[in-house]
User: What shape does this take?
Amino acid sequence: MIGIQMNMGGAPHVKTGMEASHRVEPALRPLPSAPQRSPAPRTPADPARLGWLDALRGIAALVVVFDHSSYAFMAEFRAELMPEFNTSRYGIMVFFLVSGYIIPASLERRGCVRTFWIGRVFRIYPLWAAVVAAVLVANVVGVAQIRDFDGQSFATVAAAHVTLLQELLGTPNLLLVLWTLSYEMAFYLLVVALFSLRLHQRSAPVAVTLAVLAAVSVTVASALPVSALTDAVGTGPLVAVAAIAMVVAICCASGTSAALRVSGGVLGGVLGLVLVAFNSTVPMWEGLVILAVMFLGTAVYRAESGESTWRYAACTAVVVVACAVGAAYAYGDGSHFTRRAWILSFLLAVLTFGVGLAVRRRLIPRPLMWLGTISYSVYLVHPVLLAVTDGTIGRWRENKPLLELAFYAVLLPLCVMTYRYIEAPGQAVGRKVARRVRRPGRESVPPGSNGGPGPKRSGTSPP
Assistant: This one.
């Protein structure tokens, strides 16, 4: 979505468990005068930048592209498939699981909230800005048409989109795919909150709590409409309050005062959770399931890095999956929702992540890793290209597989270009800025935390 890649370089080499049990590295011991720290967690072996995560993102991106392009080129096939299998939800859930695995590890590897946010900004916004500008230009020249914003002012729409929270603020997305970045941003805020409160290692309890709340909310929140806060206070005031709160939260959480960091973290976490629970455009249960799924990804990372046990992670997965499936089943079918399609897509997404995890130490096909590297571009660029094709050649009622293949043939080289000339330079600038603002010896690692290096960041980005 943004969340996403979601990661989004490198970390110091960490010995595997077998190597560490036979060799001691005196150079890694803290100096006698240095404050003692808990032993660093064991980091997963990642000779290919955690290539299995890149591969998962690549697969997810292709599936999401097919879901959207099938409206135009495979309409008959789509009409038969969608009641049985929701391709969009499948791809998105894979994205969210990968983001959950990577994002908290990225923050903990840095050990600094300030540089974490700098990394997020320069990872997400350059391509986001380019895509938004492209669709606006396409609209002006008449080759694409942007959606109606229900009479909302330009300032409201712009402010909501700049926060990336527009999906949770009652503002229609300029591009449909941007909705996932809102959940990515809410997840970032929650991750920073837990980190600031020294609760970041309790990923499994957080995932279970969110999943249980999702299951309960199907019944107790059935009378609560979607976008309830927008209905109560209005879009403009809500956007203004949320934007200010988000800026204050990030600035305080990135500060040097411990009290400010905690206050900012809590403010951001509350903001993200409240918006997901009470102002999503999806039912409350699904918004909470999305967050639970991301924290499930984090729980898997904890087990892989040795901070937790695999049994604990497996039990967490069972609870999250059971609550999600139960919530979807209890919600029932609707005009744009079939529970069997949602449940099947969700289960296959979890299974796909599990298969990727199982083969993580095997050789990953380079084409899939390459697709994962450019998956953020694939995710954001394809709706712009679709808008152009809609405005030029139009949509077809019958299946046109050759046009579908031609769409991919144009999209992928274009995404290689956007990655090379927009994404990669943006990341490079972000790393330079982070090095400049980070003061040696002034870490934001919470006292008592492991503070060890996380996995090397994947080349992928938020969905």
Q: What stands out?
A: The mean pLDDT is 86. Residues 40-437 form one domain.
